[in-house]
Amino acid sequence: MAATLNFAAVDVGAESGRVMLARFDGAALTLAEAHRFANIPVQVDDTLHWDILRLWGDIRQGLAATAQQAGGALAGIGVDTWGLDFGLLGRDDQLLGNPVHYRDHRTDRMQAEAFRRVPREEIFAQTGIQFMQINSLYQLLALVLRRAPALEAATRLLTIPDLFNFWLSGTLSNEFSNATTMQCYNPRTNDWAWDLLAKLRIPTGLFGPIIQPGTVLGPVRGALAAEFGLGAAAVPVIAPATHDTGSAVAAVPFGAEPAIYLSSGTWSLMGVEIGAPIIDARSLAYNFTNEGGVGGTFRLLKNIMGLWLVQECRRTWAAQGQTYDYAELMRLAEAAPSFGPLVNASDERFLALGDMPARMRAFATDTGQAAPETPAAIIRCALESLALEYRWVAERLDELVGKRHEVIHIIGGGARNTVLNQFTADATGRVVLAGPAEATALGNVLVQAMAAGHLGSLAEGRAVIRQSFPLETFEPRPTARWEAAYQTYLRLRG
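^ thats the sequence. predicted structure below, dont judge the formating
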């Protein structure tokens, strides 16, 4: 029997982070949470920041706890986080200020300014990325227009996981799966979109060589290795798919049938895995995105507002003195009357922090619907709207790829949301397979194990996932009322 290997997976999402200990015996994987922490943005004057140093402190605490649980013996450490955001380094490789949150208002109107300089069609032709005002391209353009001192002083740009990997290993890198999300990468040339960046006057010297998932960056720095309690053997820092969705998709337990994945969390990311990007008039019209994956794959997908709608409602109510846990909100929604008002689950009015219930009521009123008033009605509205958006995206994926996908794999924390899972099956008329919930950490570990030579391929790793983690099946129960709701949703979506 093969010796059991221990890997540390650092997975930081937009709402929370965790450091996980994965044990792999050559046939099966197990996961144990060593440390979980909140990811709370900080407002300073008119700018919303990530609390990056507190996150770094939590990562260090988590890695120390992981190493202790592993008896000081780790075969690798991998970091993945949310995408788009970045830190700027100066000439001494020191961070120039706190990274800014993608929900900050600095990107307001930046898409229009970008299109004034470079036509929308040309930006898509060069990047193949969905247009969202939060994209790194528009964050950088905002800095250019403001003549931000940090941008003028910067010598290197690192996405958030690249930054943590640098602090862990001392190696500066830009990893492929995260680089491709920024709308600054050209998948046709397999390099940064140099021409586009130059036309927008974004300093091209900020961007370094792009590395692939599975690259060994180097050993954990000596002082950190001692702090974590690692043994004498050097522990490698391995870049997984550092974009959390890239890692999550790596762990989707695909079977033989054509299937869609849905990474369900703060964001819902719904798509298919393909061998080459699809950049054409239809994918532009549907505003789909082509992001890099593991093993030379691409993720043709759509970013959907996701459970952010629920999270921000919950936060708003808590601020008003009304506290709910997620399980309670789901019970309320399940018991609420069905097929009431709906919202466009991808409308940009829901993007920023703020009073989400008020915004959902306003959307309903503005579109001639009765406003949802109670928490139960509001959450029911959010969940049914998400399920109907999933149907719209699934139908577009079928069209773009040229075949129907009968199965939807739901992974990530949202895979535990049985109410939304059943709604998704009902709305789409497709079988939903839910799990694993910790797909991001598992995909992170699979890539580490491949890099270390303990797994031969991504397919082999996915077979390990299927063997290690049971899936929950949700059979579709389509009804005439779901069909009528979809027709209403199409009108709201425009």
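The mean pLDDT is 96.
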